Amino acid sequence: MALFKFHVEQTPTRRGQLPSGKTVNATLTAVCAFLRFCAVQGHVDHEVAARLSEPRFLAYAPTGFDPGEGGQHRMVKARVLKAPEIELAPATLTEHQVGQILKSAHTARDRLLLTVLVTGGLRIGEALGLRREDMHLLPDSTHLGCRTRGAHLHVRPRQDNENGARAKAGRHRMVPLAQGAVHRYREHLAERERVIEAAGCDYVFVNLAGGYAGRPLTYSNAKQVIERIGKRCGFRARPHMMRHTAATQWIRGGVAPDVVQTLLGHASSASTAVSLHAQDEDLRAAVDRLSPEVAR
Asked: What is the DSSP string of 261-286?
């Protein structure tokens, strides 16, 4: 297993780069689980599976963990072989870059998609699964059977999306929208009406031209669109980067973590904590806030 770990660490990925520690550990986890299964089925000795892990004291218990009487449950089995993982802050866009990509989008559809991702924090699958009935953009939506006031959209988990889009969390949530998103949605509707094939499609984001005109936008389509816009701007842009950008802006703006967690649709605060990584510029700004007398 040690030799196998070394082999995985030294084998370049399809992009020609060495795998990260997280990728190596994911591979080791799968192999160890398979060997444990083989031990249960009698294909390998139980001693082989037993040597894959060792008892270890759980120094930092997760929230809600029950250590038991006298803390006896703090002894857990940990995998013996593990690659070091470097925790990197998620890639985000600056305010200037956000302005650049919005200006570089060639269609109202693309501007709306970017706006929903970068100001609403939606996952790309959630955005592509939106139907027109999910967009409540009037000051009062009671006539739609919705008591939420102000412009907003509803993320609804659906299993029958034609484009395969999925809402990862699997539960409904409401996301408020700024006035800019309302204007861009109106521009998109005007653009969409010129696509005759889209008349019978209820999806918000559809293909505007070509053989698939009027059909729901797929993940690969959206990814290519956003990456092309990023290239025009001279930097790399990916769909999930927009979500991290929204989360980081909220946190840096002083929004309470529980509010950010609800906006992002995270079931656990641990998922939201990924966006709490301090960037180098954040550390520098914290030091620069000191008065000259203290800094000296």
From this structure: HHHHT-SSHHHHGGGGPPPHHHHHHH
The first and second tokens of residue 31, run together, are 């192999």
CB atoms within 10 A of CB 57: 9
- pLDDT tens digits, one per residue of 92-116: 999 999 999 999 999 999 999 999 9
* Contact indicator for 294, 184 with CB cutoff of 8 Å: no
pLDDT of residue 49: 84
Whole-angstrom CA distances from 74 to 29, 55, 71, 82 are 21, 10, 6, 20
Considering only CA atoms, which of 166, 161, 142, 139 is closest in space to residue 151? Answer: 139
Quote the pLDDT of residue 151: 94
What is the C-alpha to C-alpha distance for residues 169 and 98, in angstroms, rounded to an integer? 26
- The residues, ordered by sequence, that sit 6+ positions from 75 with a Cβ below 8 Å of its Cβ are 55, 56, 57, 58
DSSP assignment, residue 98? H
**Which own/partner pairs from 246-252 qualify as long-range (CB within 8 Å, at least 24 positions apart)?**
246/117, 246/118, 246/119, 246/120, 246/121, 247/121, 247/272, 247/275, 248/90, 248/92, 248/275, 249/95, 250/121, 251/275, 251/276, 252/282
Residue 247, classified by CB atoms within 10 Å of its CB into exposed (0-12), middle (13-18) or buried (19+), is buried
And the tokens for 232? Answer: 């025009």
Q: For residues 274 and 246, give the distance between their C-alpha atoms in angstroms, rounded to a whole number.
A: 13
What is the spatial distance between Cα 205 and Cα 228, in angstroms, rounded to a whole number?
Answer: 17
d(CA 136, CA 287): 44
Q: Tens of pLDDT along 158-169? A: 988 999 998 877
Name the percent of the chain lying above pLDDT 90: 57
| C-beta separation of 17 from 35 below 8 A | no
